[in-house]
Specification:
Order of helices and strands: HEEHEHHEEEHEHEHEHEH
Strand order of the largest sheet: 2-1-3-4-8-7-10-9
Helix content: 25-40%
Strand content: 15-25%
Low-confidence stretches: 269-273
Radius of gyration: 19 Å
Number of helices: 9
Number of domains: 1
């Protein structure tokens, strides 16, 4: 991998997330060439640029359609979609729900800093009520999404939350999510040191606690996933061991050429020139 300058603020929560994810990717029982990351637009969406793997950096909110397409075309690949809360839950919110429905073996990692960091601090879908920022000086008046609960209700068979300030916990959760056969969702509590002055490292450390074991009951999982405030659980909320993953299939059995595309479309192909 060619070394690149990392374009994040000093102290950004993306740094420990990147470090933990790189460790896990290097230790997976999967060849590096068979790991593909997709992302959209945003600070977290830069993550694949700084990791030793193949990646496709797409449009804002569109990392999941890319992941679905790759998994359908190459079911042998390990596919991970990583972006921020704005990308996955905002612009890509519909794709988030329908990617879960498609039952493919895709890992969804969400760097949830509760703010649009790339565009300088607007409230995001997960910004807490009343939190003020430069573009919302009266405080956020919109009810925040609760992503783990949304994922459980949507049918995700693996749902977890972890914290950027707990590297060992991140590594454990990332590994289990990636190795799980089916759509797995990990919401990562990530402080934004530049634009979110409410949900800081210190704020989280006073509140987060580790779950010992995943709940066996889906309703208990949902209750824990919705817990927020003075006590915030992190860990695996739901793991459905009976889940049957949809099997992809090889659809590109021959090299894709201009002639093949032209025959398929029954029209001259100009897009590949």
């Amino acid at each position: 991998m060619q070394k690149q300058d990392i374009a994040w603020c000093p102290g950004c929560g993306d740094y420990p997330i990147r470090t933990a994810l790189e460790k896990v990717l290097r230790m997976l029982p999967v060849p590096q060439r068979n790991i593909v990351l997709t992302s959209g637009i945003g600070q977290a969406a830069k993550m694949p640029h700084y990791l030793p793997c193949s990646y496709f950096n797409g449009l804002h909110g569109r990392s999941l359609p890319l992941a679905v397409g790759i998994k359908l075309a190459r079911p042998d690949l390990t596919v991970i979609a990583v972006s921020g809360d704005g990308c996955h839950y905002g612009e890509g919110g519909n794709h988030f729900l329908h990617t879960i429905r498609r039952r493919l073996d895709i890992t969804i990692l969400v760097c949830d800093n509760k703010v649009y960091g790339l565009t300088k601090g607007q409230s995001s879908p997960t910004t807490d009520l009343g939190v003020k920022n430069a573009l919302d000086p009266r405080g956020n008046e919109n009810t925040p999404l609760i992503p783990p609960a949304l994922a459980i209700v949507g049918g995700a068979p693996f749902v977890a939350r972890t914290f950027a300030g707990d590297p060992q916990h991140m590594e454990k959760v990332f590994r289990e999510a990636i190795l799980f056969r089916g759509p797995s969702v990990v919401d990562i509590l990530q402080p934004c040191v530049s634009f979110n002055k409410a949900n800081t490292y210190a704020w989280y450390r006073e509140r987060v606690y580790r779950l010992e074991e995943p709940p066996k009951d889906r309703y208990e999982a949902l209750r824990l996933a919705e817990t927020w405030g003075e006590r915030i659980p992190i860990g695996i909320f739901w793991r459905d061991e009976q889940f049957v993953c949809r099997q992809g299939r090889e659809i590109f059995r021959k090299p894709v050429t201009e002639e093949a595309v032209a025959r398929l479309l029954n029209t001259p192909c100009i897009m590949m020139r």
